[in-house]
Amino acid sequence: MPRRPHPVDEVLPAGKLAVYGFQHVLAFYAGAVVVPILLAGAIGLSERELIHLINADLFTCGIASIIQAAGFWKVGVRLPLLQGVTFTAVSPMIAIGLAAGGGTDGLLVIYGSVIVAGLATFLVAPFFGRLIRFFPPVVTGSVILVIGLALLPVAAADAVGGAADPQPGNLRHLAYALGTLAVIVLVQRLFRGFLATVAVLVGLVLGTLVAWLLGDAHFDAVGESAWLGVTTPFHFGWPQFSIAAIVSMIVVMLITAVETTGDVFATAEIVDKRVGREDVARALRADGLATTIGGVLNSFPYTCFAENVGLVRLTQVKSRWVVVAAGVIMIIVGLVPKAGAVVAGIPHPVLGGAALAMFATVAVVGIQTLARVDFNDHRNVVIVGSSVGLAMFVTAQPAIATAVPGWAQIVLGSGITLGSITAIVLNIVFHHVGKGRGPAVAGTPGTGTVRLEQVNGMGREEFVATFGRLFQGPADVVAHAYDRRPFADPANLRAAFQEALFSAPAAEQRALMAAYPDLGADRVADGDEGEESARDQSCAGLTRLADADRAEFAQLAAVYRERFGIPLIVCVREAESRDRILAEGRRRLDNSPAQEHAAALIEIAKVANNRFADLVAGANPIATARSRALGRGDG
Fold first, then answer.
1. How would residue 54 be classed by pLDDT, with cut points 50, 70 and 90?
2. For the ranges 73-77, 166-170, 622-626, which has the lowest average pLDDT?
């Protein structure tokens, strides 16, 4: 009997592929076309040029998605990841285009930087695992927050009629913008499932329809456009190359590489497929190749679209061939200029209302990322404050760029570029330069302190020897955690142990459970089960039990083993008393085996959290209280 393929590799019937693929296109469409619309309006392109940009974007999105999902050689991660133009590049591209004089002249400099940045991403992909330590949450969170905040003025300009002809006193423009935003909010509030994921598209359609009925939306270009049109390489002319523009775009691609890495691991978790460093490299090669193709075919930098990652989670349709089908659909749509002309007819205020929602959401994602940052460390406060402050300074006063030479105006003319570079450089200065680089994460008297940079440079055996004490018995879980390197910070390291524990095969989990000693056992009191077990159980006095209490614990342990085949595991440090432990153990006897398997894993995670706190305390006594609080928080 042939082996059934993994759900990711399953080829669904043609009808389902078409329906599910079209659903991905709908969820992606609004975000895909917004980038060329924003760019065209900002650098002064004509409606005809905008139509070509939209079709080129969709056409190249289809190619990029097929490369990522289908894969070939060492390119493409072969997961259901749909590719789209990254929002991170919008503001830098606008700055590059305007600095080059706007119009098609600016567009050619943009394409030159896109092509080179794509090639750089392709080449650096195998080594990005070594670079990712320079992009911890304090950097990525700052950059994402800056992106959202810096793009809001662009959305506001559209909301009042467009940068070319702003009319802030026009009540009808205000009504279109706020009305579109209200529709998006209402759809997300009133509906669930797929309709909620296309709330932006619904808002754009309804807002444009109302504007058309009132005579403020015009689609004359639709009738003038052809039914079939192919985007040709270098349609606007040969690309132009500027060193400052190239540097700016490479920074953008490094930031998007961090986002792609997160999307790869998120999607792998959703579809239940293990991925490693080589898979990330394959995904980044696909990003780089697609970005280079984008520069050639009159499009822009590409990355994995997080919206569609959410759609995979929502629908639980895991086949990567669905994304391939979506790519084919996008290529077909990209060959129809009339479709691009329809999108180009969306009034600026309607687009501005939708953009306000989208860009503000990007800022919220940045805030969520920064929530994982330890702001008790003042260095992180300086990094975030300086990068966001400089980015907003340039965004609020864009003319400040004229104070510096032309080669520096690309950097100082973009809040996103300046904020990104500031966050990266300050993170290196504060966390990677000088003595004691990186926070202390492990250390005990006599063994010295182990810092995060050393952990990331450890071999597997040294890593297991350092952190094997977190778990009892087999070291398989610790070895799996090693595969999740590099670690951005101690919290990320601790999370790796938790993720490795809960994602381990059931057989490994059972073997780990079997290695834990019985509560109150003589072997623990005598030290035969290890120093960590003795320390854990002594917290509730289980190593100093009277004969009657010892007999009571032994009886409970025997009944529990007979019922479930594993020892009763309780995080003693978080229990209030021996009586509470006994009562909890008796209550758990009524659980099903599956529920008790899960309960045992949770207790093991709690024990490991406390042992991790001991390691951090040994390395850095100042962190003791905070680490213990984190350990309790995961229980």
1. confident
2. 622-626
Does this model's pTM top 0.85? My answer is no
pLDDT value at residue 315: 64
In whole angstroms, give the CA distance from residue 257 to residue 120.
12
**Contact predicate 607/535, CB 8 Å:** no
Q: Whole-angstrom Cα distance, residue 178 to residue 183?
A: 9
DSSP class per residue in 334-355: HT-HHHHHHHHTS-HHHHHHHH
- CA distances to 51, 54, 328, 379 from 201, in Å: 18, 16, 21, 41
- Contact (CB, 8 A) for 226 and 338: yes
pLDDT band at 293 (very low <50, low <70, confident <90, very high): very high
Q: How far apart, in whole angstroms, are the C-alpha atoms of residue 396 and residue 386?
A: 15
Q: Which DSSP helix (H) or strand (E) runs through 130?
A: helix 128-131
* Bridge partners, 443 (sequence order): 449
Number of residues written out for the chain: 635
Contact indicator for 126, 281 with CB cutoff of 8 Å:
yes
Q: Which is more confident, 468 or 272?
A: 468
Give the range among 88-97, 352-361, 379-388, 583-592 with minimum mean pLDDT. Answer: 352-361
Tokens standing for residue 137: 């949450």
- d(CA 87, CA 91) in angstroms, rounded, equals 8
User: Identity (one letter) of the amino acid at 133?
Assistant: R
Contacts 24+ apart (CB under 8 A), 269-273: 270/309, 270/312, 270/313, 270/318, 271/7, 271/8, 271/79, 271/80, 271/312, 271/318, 272/7, 272/318, 273/6, 273/8, 273/79
Query: Cα 177–45–91 angle (5° rounding)?
Result: 65
Q: Residue 204: count other Cβ atoms within 10 Å of its Cβ.
A: 25
Residue 445: is the preceding peptide bond cis (ω within 30°)? no
The CATH homologous superfamily for domain 440-633 is Oxo-4-hydroxy-4-carboxy-5-ureidoimidazoline decarboxylase (1.10.3330.10)
Distance CA(173)–CA(176), nearest Å, equals 5
Cα–Cα dist 28/61, whole Å: 10
Backbone angles phi and psi of 413, in degrees to 5: -90, -5
Greatest extent of the chain over all pairs of C-alpha atoms, in Å: 94
Alpha-carbon span 417 to 251, nearest angstrom: 7
What is the average pLDDT value for the chain, to the nearest integer?
Answer: 80
For 535-557, write each residue's pLDDT tens digit.
788 777 787 777 778 888 888 88
Enumerate the CATH 1.10.3330.10 domain ranges in the chain, comma separated. 440-633
Do the beta carbons of residue 431 and residue 379 sit within 8 Å?
yes
**Would you say residue 196 has pLDDT above 80?**
no
DSSP for 234-286 reads TTT-S----HHHHHHHHHHHHHHHHHHHHHHHHHHHHHT----HHHHHHHHHH
Pull the structure tokens for residue 484.
Answer: 């999740």
